[in-house]
Amino acid sequence: MRLETEKKEFTMKKHLAALLIACSLLLAGGHALAEVGWEVVQTWQLPEDPRDVAVSGNGQWVFFLTRKNSVAVFQGDGTQVGELPAPAGVDRIIASENGDVLYLKDSEKKTLERVMIYHRAEINTEGSPFMGRADAPVEIVEFSDFQCPFCASVPPMLEEVLEKNPDTVKLVFKHFPLAFHKQAEPAARASLAAANQGKFWPYHDKLFANGKTLTDDSYKKIAEELGLDVERLLKDMDSPTVVRKVRQDILDAQRIGVNSTPSLFVNGWRLTGKRTAENIQELVDRELAQIKKNGDSKN
């Protein structure tokens, strides 16, 4: 017991001695510190002296609180993408990690408002399965998971919107298999393997119909039901091209802040309200009106 106590006292003395040495070096002028420096990698040319500046934690968004009661929104590369009105009296702004939430502080009123910021996402849809006209002016992108019960309820409402807008809407499917759904990733690969045989959407429907009971044997069984070349499908499931495509969809989703399924975007604008055909149609109508307005302004 005594030996143990002596060991503890010795260890504590060593730590204390090291701390005293470090402090003495700092007080002596920091001779033990490594040299530091900096390099200017970007310079912002500001239209005016802002009241406050906020940067998202990921560095992708920069917000300037102007002196005319607005918030100028810039991408991290210096490109301005918009300007939003701010309540009079706001004198400080704070941005969230992803830049999707902004806090507006009014020191005089002693208030702090939390507002959602909606960004138009640039989504890579090249090579993704789609329905509708390839050149449709409105593109609905769905990030989905075949084992997600909420995702299974989305196809009927999307088909309803597509039927109402056959010449103006294109529906694109992208994969975002969640890690805790063990069959979601192989199901995604199987659907793309079916796409190689021109049967993505029928296979997609079968996967959702069996989402709660998917097993390793399900993909062969569904292929047989749809009259597909089973051996080819199983081989394509493990092909580098298909594996890479699923991985790319996941990266595309993460890049624009998708963290749950289903996630829907209409021309890059994320659906934030209830997932209903009416709310999706409202976004579609808004985009069509904006496209018409832009077209009329050019004439």
Topology, pairings included?
Blueprint: H1 2-27, E1 52-55, E2 61-65, E3 70-75, E4 80-85, E5 92-95, E6 101-106, E7 111-116, E8 130-132, E9 138-144, H2 154-164, E10 169-175, H3 184-195, H4 200-209, H5 218-225, H6 230-237, H7 240-255, E11 263-266, E12 269-270, H8 277-298
Parallel strand pairs: 9-10
Antiparallel strand pairs: 1-2, 2-3, 3-4, 5-6, 6-7, 8-10, 9-11, 11-12
Attribute tags:
20% strand, alpha+beta, 12 strands, 4-stranded antiparallel sheet, 299 residues
Structural features, described:
It is a single chain. The chain is of the alpha+beta class and 299 residues long. The protein has helices spanning 2-27, 154-164, 184-195, 200-209, 218-225, 230-237, 240-255, 277-298, and strands at residues 52-55, 61-65, 70-75, 80-85, 92-95, 101-106, 111-116, 130-132, 138-144, 169-175, 263-266, 269-270. The chain has a 5-stranded mixed sheet with strand order 8-10-9-11-12. A hairpin with a 4-residue loop joins strand 6 and strand 7. Helix 3 (184-195) crosses helix 7. The chain is globular, with a radius of gyration of 27 Å. The model has no long low-confidence stretch (mean pLDDT 89).
> What is the overall silhouette?
globular
Strand content: 15-25%
Number of strands: 12
What is the topology, as strand order, of the major beta sheet? 8-10-9-11-12
List low-pLDDT spans: none
For the termini, the CA-CA separation is 93 Å
Number of separate helices: 8
Largest sheet: 5 strands, mixed
The chain-level structural class is: alpha+beta
Rg measurement, Å: 27 Å
Output the helix-strand order.
HEEEEEEEEEHEHHHHHEEH
Helix content: 25-40%
| Average residue-wise pLDDT | 89
